[in-house]
Amino acid sequence: MFMLLCRCRLGYFHVVNNDYTHWEMYAIGGSANPTINSQGNRFVAPNDRFSKEVTKHEDAPESEWKNWNWRTEGDMLVNGAFFTASGAAGASSSYARASSLSARPSSLVASLTSSSGALICKKGSPC
Question: Model pTM?
Fold first, then answer.
């Protein structure tokens, strides 16, 4: 199982084709108005009914974070997982221009991440 948590502050984050499982509080969190574009990811929520939300808007009241540009497109939300999108409805064109790569369908995440994991690096050798 692969899990990646994003401490996202300021700037643009394109979260693509990851497999988020077994998070404790949330899978993607941000503060200081980051732009987050989540595409083609699989989010499998834990069984804890209070830990189903994928997103966490850190250190900001709703009146502030509701203007942050966070969106989900083609993500698979499993076991009650939910993504709280925010920002302007017309922001999708700016996401398209800023995307760093094309997302594959979320149904392929298991095969795309099947051999993922931590790099094993040795000092003096390339990783």
Answer: 0.77
Which DSSP string corresponds to 11-79? SEEEEES-EEES-SS-SEEEESS-EEEEES-EEE--S-TT--BSEEETT--HHHHTTS-EEEES-EEET
Which pLDDT score, from 0 to 100, does residue 113 have? Answer: 80
Cα–Cα dist 27/101, whole Å: 21
* C-alpha to C-alpha distance for 6 and 36, rounded to whole angstroms: 10
Tens digit of each residue's pLDDT (9 = 90 or more) over 37-56: 999 999 999 999 999 999 99
Rounded Cα distance, 84 and 101, in Å: 23
